[in-house]
Each structure stands twice: as C-alpha cells, then as structure tokens.
Design a protein that fits this description.
The structure holds two protein chains of two kinds.
Chain A (H helix, E strand, L loop, with lengths): L3 H39 L10 H11 L1 H27 L2 E2 L11 E2 L2 H8 L9 H32 L4 H9 L6 H12 L13 H8 L15 E4 L2 E4 H28 L3 H9 L4 H12 L1 H16 L3 H7 L12 H10 L3 H30 L2
Helix pairs in contact in A: 4-15, 5-9, 5-12, 7-13, 9-12, 12-15, 14-15
Chain B lengths: L2 E10 L9 E11 L4 E5 L6 H9 L6 E6 L2 E2 L10 E4 L11 H10 L5 H14 L15 H13 L5 E5 L7 H18 L2 E6 L2 H7 L2 E6 L2 E6 L1 H6 L4 H6 L6 E8 L2 E4 L2 E5 L5 E7 L4 E3 L5 E10 L3 E7 L8 E6 L10 E6 L4 E5 L8
Parallel strand pairs in B: 3-8, 3-9, 6-7, 7-8
Antiparallel strand pairs in B: 1-2, 1-4, 4-5, 9-10, 11-12, 11-14, 12-13, 14-20, 15-19, 16-17, 16-19, 17-18
Helix pairs in contact in B: 2-3, 2-4, 3-4
The chains are: A mainly alpha, B alpha+beta.
Bound molecules: adenosine-5'-diphosphate and magnesium ion.
C-alpha cells in the first residue's frame, strides 16, 4: 500500500491544509496588526471602530465556533429525528394518505384522529382506545411493582457480604437476553400444551398452582370467563397477568443495577444515625434510605413509564405477531405498526402523534410530582 | 449514668493479605463518673472515634467490656443503649426539616405526636434554634447544623451523650462560643457526656476529666490541670499546653541536671540520660541565671512577653519562654540567661520517655 505516489498525495494534502490554516491565521494576525498600527498612529485607544463585512464575519465565527462543533450531530439529528417528527406531524393531518397515489392524499383535517379515536378505521381488531387501555394498565401496574421489587432486592443485595458480586451478575443477566426469546420462554411458563384436562403438559406456573390445588388455567389463551368487559374495552385478565409478570421481571435488572449503585453511594453515617435514633430496619428503609435515593427512584419511574408506554416487542414475544387474538393485547406502538404495515398510514401517523402527546402528559405530571419529593 | 470500660480492645482486620491488622483501641480501661463531662483527647487516628462508637454500640469491641452503671451493655444493640450521638459531620437527614430531624428519635419511641412536637421544641430551645424548625439542613450554617445535631441527640433524654469532634467543622470564633455552649448544656442537663477532640485547648477548657490517648493506648486520665502539672510521660507533656513545652536533651550527673555544659537545676534523680521538659512559664529571667540561651527575638503580647531563643540541645528550632511584660529584657545581648522554676521542669527517661521527676 505504501507506494511513493500515495505518500506524495497525502503529503500534498497535508501541505495544502497547512497553508490554508496559515492563511486563515494570517487573516487574524493582519487584522490585529492593522488595529495596533491604527492605534499607535492616532495615539488613542479605539473604542468603536467600523468593521468591514469580512472582519465582522470572522469575529462572528470566532465567537460562535461552538456551533461548528455541533453541526455534524445536528445534521444527523435533523435527518433522522427532526425530519421524521415534522413529517409525521404533517402527514397525520393528510386524509387517506397513500405514497403511491399521484395526489398522495385527498384532503387535510382531523379525519384521521377522529377515526382513530372512534375506532372507525375500516379494519377490524383492537381499537386505539383498547390499545391505550392495555398499554396504560401494563405500564402503571408493572413499573411501580417492578421498581418496588427492585428496591427490596437491591436493599437485600446491599446488606449481604458473601457472594454479592455473583448475585449482582445473575440478577443482571436477563438484561442481556433477547426480549423475543424471553417472551417465548414466558409463554411456555404460562401455557397449557395438549388437551385441557391433562395435567402433565402444563407450564411451570400451572404446576406451581397445582400444589395449592388450583386447576390449571391457560393463561395465554384466557377465553370465556377470563375476560372483564367495560363498555367497548375488553380486559382478558389472565393475559394481562402474563404481560405484567413478564414486564416486572424484565424490568428488574436495569432497576436493580441503578438502585444498587444508588444504595452504595448513600453515606453509611445516616444508617448509624438511624440506629442511634432507635429506628427499626423497616423504618430506616422507608424513612431514610428511600428518600435518600428518591432521585434515582423517580428517574426509574419516569423512564419506566415512558418506556412502558412504548412497549411492543414484549407483546410480540409473548403473543406473536397478531398480539393475541385479533390484536386484543395490542399496545399503542403495536397499533401504529399495524397501520403502517397494512397501508393505512394516516392512522399510524395520527396514532403516533396521540402517543407522543400522551407520553408528554405523563412525563410532565411525573416531573411535577417528583419535584417536591426528590429535592432536598 | 456511670460508664465503666474494662480492657476494651478493637482490632480492624487487614484490608488485604499483605496489610497489617490495625489495633485502633488497645486495652482501654477507664471509669467515667456519672454526670461528668469527659474529653477523649489525642492526635488524629489514635482511636478516639472508635472508642466512642464502641460506647455507642455502633462498633462492637474485639474484647473487653462496657458497663452503664452495673449493666453490661457490651453486646447490647446501639438502638437499645439510650445514647445520644453527635457525629463529626452531624449526619443530619437531608430530606427532613430541622423539626423532622429532631423528632425522628421520638417517632421511634411511639410517643404521641403532640408530645413529640413539644419535646422537640424544648430541645430546640435548649440549643436556641427554635426559629429554624421548618428549614432543611442544607439551608443552615455549620454552627446551626451542629446545634440541630445536639438537639437530636438530646431530645430522647439519653443516659449518655457522645460527641465526635463536635467543634472541628466550625470557624475559630464559633468554636469558642460553642464549646461554652456544650459545657452549659451539659451542666443544665446533667447528662454524662463523652466528647472527642484532637484540640488540647478545647479539652482543657471544658472537661471535668480528660483521657489522653496515643496509638490506641490510654496514656493518662485525670483533671486537666492535674495532667498538665503532672504528665506521666513525654508524649502527654508535649501534647498539652500552648505554647507547647520545651524539650531538651540532657543528663543527670551527681544530683544536677545538665543541658549542654550547664547545670540548670538540682535533682535527686540517679545519674542517667534524660529529656528535660520546661514549660514556657517555667523560666525566670535573671542576668546571672544558670541556663543561657541564644536570643532570637522577643514577642510582646501585652499581658506578657515571649522570649524566643535557640539552643543546641533543644528538640525544636526555637525555645519559647513566657515572662511578665513588666520585666526588662536586654534585647541587645546575644545571650539571655534564666533560672528555672523547679515545679515546671520535668525529667523523662531518654529511652522509655517515662517521667522520672
Ligand atoms: N472501619 C475501619 N476499618 C479499618 N480501620 C479503621 C476503621 N475505622 C478506623 N480505623 C483505623 O483505626 C484507627 C483509629 O481510628 P479512629 O478511631 O477513627 O481515630 P480518631 O478518631 O482518633 O482520629 C486509625 O488507624 C484508623 O485508620
Ligand atoms: Mg475521629
């Protein structure tokens, strides 16, 4: 590779760059020299000298050079984040959007939103409202429970000395596991394979329930008698349980990681002080430890809720591409994907905008609520 | 409550295989009478805090026993000993208000809320912070935080109050004021109090009894003045007094103490090599004195003056002697001569550094 011509070429480029840089520097130097000369000639300090356009530009460059450094990142963000957001925003208002038709859309208005919210999209399966209820319940049950469990596990982990590192590693392993694979495993835990009345082909959960004399339930199927209905909304609770257990479990590793390190950074003296003050173990946990690591807990709750509102893969992992029967376990993101893939993109855009607004609302509420609790 | 400590030892295991185990407290035996203010005094790292934490129950001793009155509390959990402890950095709960901090020990005693509030207020009044009850610790000055910590320790009316370097985070002025305060509170409440300090002046000024420690070993126990007047060894003599005692290498020969060639004082001690310790106030200016030193300069302080000199046998580069400011000293002469006050001169064995006179 190292042929002399190549070397020459690079050397030339190097020289060019150097020359360019030097001329660039010279521009500044010349200007300074001029200024100094002007000052010494007139014998007084210049206060408001008129600048030429070029000097003004250079001065601007010098002052605002920070922008130069963030430009690459800004360009990438613009192309891959800002443009899609703006685009989705616009498309959400275009009715009957179809990238293949010459006119692309037939009108502008709120039609997409109205139909999404009414569940009147001309395609069967779970409505947006159903998906919203699904997602909200999954999230608001699993995230707090998962955080609480993670807190208790971290406290336990923090109080043991032997094998602490080993446990820490084991607890973190699920984080490295593919969520589709985990979903498949969970599905077999909860399912019944074979005929309904045979007990030797049930999953782990049913085996465990069997010890307490509970008849096996096909959690993954649910079916009649396992569904609550509230107006248009159906809640197949056995499947909900599966999702929530899965979500709690898969959310644990990251939360434990964060809370454990938060616990480790708590000054040991507070525990000593609590002991002297006669506080019990549980009181120390709830009145001292928890408030002290509240910033981290609230970080986990906020990010957990944001992530929960966007969950999708876990449902596919558990219930397959159809997300249950006729998408009845669908999440909001699942809803969006569905309408992207069936070509009714207007509803996908409207759905994603609604999702955006909903997440925004929850985040603002969260931040407001945690502000009081978090700071000290 | 009387505290009795018997052969208390605390060893910390070595950090790694190459390290050595640390004997933080070595065979400590002291008796702390009820209602007294006792100071644990010694240089940094000599095991003061460890001793205090063992009394509080936060550290468990390797061996030895601790009694509160006649009750053996050696293995009793900290929360059941009824001690109040003020930590070196106060350890106020940052998420609670001042009131919350002070009330916390009471909420653990299942006191009715009204009574708890009342008692918290009384404790706050004792340390004069009743106006700050609704503040958070981060909104308080160091001195105020320290008072909150004391109030929190006092509010449950402990049998024993323990303070770990309570003044070390305060500025010089506040330190003077606060140590008076501690003395006042201790007297008002009559609680047996143990406090830790590395500042001998602080200990001397407020303690009823002083315990001087070095490398985990108790050197001497007694009233501050008694220890000052009668140190048991070179370390204690050196540690107490500002300005510190002057130490010279010397020798006892046929009933006379020699520093260099000069016989400075008579003694009954048998002949041997010694360290001679002379308190700064032990010098009597005398033009015909027996002990000559090279004059460096004179510091006039108003009430008295300090003659700063040098001597070849002195351990430190300068020798400080304090005399009455009325006495005229010829500052032109390169040599000043002194006689010595016998009760201000101590002799220490050159090898053991134990006091022999
Ligand atoms: N938890 C501990 N582990 C190991 N060594 C310790 C520990 N606490 C104190 N030590 C050691 O014990 C000695 C006495 O410490 P400490 O009681 O804190 O001294 P002081 O309060 O007089 O400054 C020191 O050498 C210190 O390094
Ligand atoms: Mg200490």
């Amino acid at each position: 590779m190292a042929n002399p011509e190549n070397k020459n070429f690079f050397a030339k480029i190097g020289e060019k760059c150097k020359a360019l840089w030097e001329s660039f520097l010279a521009l500044f130097k010349k200007k300074e020299a001029q200024e100094v000369a002007a000052e010494t000639q007139s014998g007084e300090v210049f206060v408001g000298k008129e600048l030429t356009a070029k000097e003004k530009f250079l001065r601007f460059l010098k002052a605002e050079q920070g922008w130069l450094f963030v430009t690459p990142a800004l360009i990438l963000l613009a192309v891959f984040t800002f443009y899609p957001i703006v685009n989705a925003f616009i498309r959400a208002f275009q009715e009957n959007y179809n990238p293949l038709s010459p006119t692309k859309y037939t009108g502008i208005g709120f039609e997409n939103f109205v139909r999404v919210l009414k569940g009147d999209t001309g395609t069967g399966g779970a409505t947006f409202l159903q998906c919203l209820v699904n997602t909200t319940i999954f999230t608001f049950v699993s995230v707090p429970l998962s955080t609480l469990l993670a807190l208790l596990i971290s406290v336990a982990l923090n109080s043991i000395k032997a094998l602490q590192k080993a446990y820490q590693t084991i607890l973190f392993l699920p984080y490295l596991t593919n969520s589709l694979a985990m979903g498949a495993v969970f599905a077999t835990f909860f399912t019944i394979v074979g005929t309904k009345n045979s007990t030797d082909t049930v999953g782990l959960v049913n085996i465990a329930l069997g010890w307490f004399g509970i008849e096996p339930i096909d959690w993954m199927k649910g079916g009649k008698g396992f569904v609550w209905t509230i107006g248009q909304i159906r809640i197949p609770w056995t499947k909900y349980v599966v999702v929530i257990v899965y979500e709690i479990w898969s959310g644990l590793p990251f939360k434990i990681l964060i809370l454990f390190s938060a616990l480790q950074s708590v000054n040991k003296q507070y525990y000593d002080a609590a002991k002297i003050d006669g506080a019990s173990k549980s009181k120390t946990l709830w009145k001292i430890t928890t408030p002290l690591i509240m910033p981290m807990i609230s970080y986990l709750l906020i990010t957990g809720i944001m992530g929960g509102m966007k969950q999708y893969t876990s449902i596919v992992g558990l219930f397959g591409e159809q997300m249950g029967i006729d998408y009845d376990m669908g999440t909001m993101v699942g809803y969006i994907y569905r309408y992207i893939s069936n070509g009714q993109m207007g509803y996908a855009f409207a759905g994603s905008l609604l999702l955006f607004v909903i997440i925004m609302i929850f985040t603002v509420i969260n931040l407001q609520a945690s502000k009081k609790k978090v700071t000290y | 409550m009387k505290i009795t400590i018997q052969n208390l030892t605390k060893k910390f295991p070595a950090r790694n295989k190459k390290g050595k185990e640390v004997v933080a407290v070595d065979n400590m035996s002291i008796e702390i009478p009820s209602g007294k203010l006792v100071g644990l005094l010694g240089p940094s790292g000599c095991g003061k805090s460890t001793s205090l934490f063992m009394i509080s129950g936060l550290e468990s001793p390797t061996s030895g026993k601790i009694f509160f009155d006649d009750q053996d509390v050696t293995t009793l959990a900290a929360e059941r000993r009824g001690v109040g402890l003020v930590f070196q950095n106060y350890a106020l709960y940052p998420h609670m208000t001042v009131e919350g901090n002070i009330m916390f020990p009471l909420t653990n005693m299942r006191l009715p809320k009204e009574e708890a509030k009342q008692r918290a207020l009384e404790a706050a009044q004792l340390v004069q912070i009743e106006d700050l009850m609704q503040r958070k610790p981060s909104e308080l000055s160091g001195g105020q935080q320290q008072r909150v910590a004391i109030a929190r320790a006092l509010v449950k009316m402990p049998n024993v109050l323990l303070l770990d370097e309570p003044l070390s985070n305060l500025d010089a002025r506040l330190r003077l004021q606060t140590r008076e305060e501690i003395k006042r509170i201790q007297r008002e409440t009559g609680i047996t109090t143990v406090f830790v300090t590395h500042d001998q002046e602080e200990a001397m000024s407020i303690c009823d009894i002083m315990v001087v420690m070095k490398l985990g070993v108790v050197q001497q126990v007694g009233a501050p003045q008694a220890i000052y007047d009668n140190p048991t060894n070179l370390f204690v003599a050196n540690f107490l007094g500002t300005p510190p005692i002057n130490i010279f290498e010397g020798e006892v020969k046929s009933g006379k103490i020699y520093i260099g060639d000069e016989a400075v004082l008579d003694t009954e001690v048998p002949d041997q090599k010694v360290y001679v310790g002379i308190r700064p106030e032990g010098f009597i200016y005398d033009e015909n004195g027996a002990f000559s030193l090279n004059l460096d300069h004179i510091e006039v302080m108003g009430r008295d003056k300090t003659i700063v000199t040098a001597h070849g046998k002195s351990q430190k580069p300068t020798v400080r002697s304090i005399i009455d400011s009325d006495i005229y000293v010829n500052d032109q002469s390169p040599v000043v001569k002194f006689n010595l006050k016998p009760n201000k001169v101590f002799l220490f064995n050159a090898e053991t550094e134990e006091r022999i006179r």
